[in-house]
Structures are given as structure tokens and as C-alpha cells.
Amino acid sequence: MDFMTAMAIANDVTKDDIVYGREEIDLDQIAPYLAMLDQHALELRGRTTRLNIARYKELQAQGKLIIIGARRRDNGAPVGYSIHLWYDELHYGLRVAEDEAWFVFPQYRRRGIGRRLREVALAELKKCGVQIALARTKIGAPHDDLMPQLGYSPYEVVYRKDL
Fold first, then answer.
1. Which pairing describes strands 78-88 and 65-72: parallel, antiparallel, or unpaired?
2. Which of 75, 92, 117, 132 is the most buried (most CB within 10 A)?
3. Alpha carbons 11 and 106: distance in angstroms, whole number
4. Is a pLDDT exceeding 50 seen at residue 1?
5. Of the candidates 14, 5, 4, the residue with the CA atom closest to the CA atom of residue 73
6. pTM here?
7. What's the CATH number for 19-149?
8. pLDDT digits over 25-74, tens only?
């Protein structure tokens, strides 16, 4: 079964049929994942990805890139991911993490997979000494109800201006 077919078949898959874990970026293996990354980018920003793999690899080598993957237990196909970057904040000396991306294929949504991805990511970030986890979500998205359940609270408003 090819990659696209394996991830497209959702049937009665539940969050318990999914394996969650920390993953590394393997430049030689990125090609099969570009469809998933592009689908996310198109949904979120209306454009495909232009990954800076070299920078991701650098952050990964420093231990500052946390990637949590969600894969089907039966065939290993990826169904989602949560990517986070952490840094030591310059003004207050706190270790802070920001989400880089959080995505579950549409056919796998509303099954608790996104929640579990975020829970696993928060546990990994805590192991790294992160004290504050920040998350950006689209306004009016289903995440509005989930984020408080995960312990997040509104913190600040982010404004965007394309230049």
C-alpha cells in the first residue's frame, strides 16, 4: 500500500489506534511527508511549504526542535504532527516554547488525535525544562474549546500585516 493510500483510509480509527512519539527530521525521508505539510500549509496560509530544512536540522541538533508524530499503529502512516521550538527568553530568563505547526489530516479529526499530540508535546517540552508553552491557533477554530481543556489561557493578541 502506498503512502497516500495508507494515510487516506480512516475508517473507524480512534486515538487508541494511533502511536504517538517524538520524531527526528530525516532529510532523505522528507519527500513522502511533503503532501501532508503542503496540505496543512494550504489550509492555514493558502500556499505550499518552503521548508528551511537546514535550519530545522540545526535546531534539532541543538535539541530545541520537538516534533511529535501521530502514526497509524497498523501501517505506520502518519496522520498528524505537532512541532514546537523552544528558546531561553532574553528578558526574564524563562525557557519558552512556541508551536511551529499542529496538524491532523481532516479525515482523522474529531477523534482526540490532536489533543493527544499536544499532550505528548507538552510532556516532552517539560522534560526539556520549558516553563511556558505558547500556542497560536486560527481565530474561531475548533481549538478554541480544546486549548483551555489542555490548560492554556489567553495570553496576548498577535496582529499580522503582510509586507
1. antiparallel
2. 117
3. 13
4. no
5. 14
6. 0.85
7. 3.40.630.30
8. 776 677 767 777 888 888 878 888 888 888 988 998 999 999 999 999 98
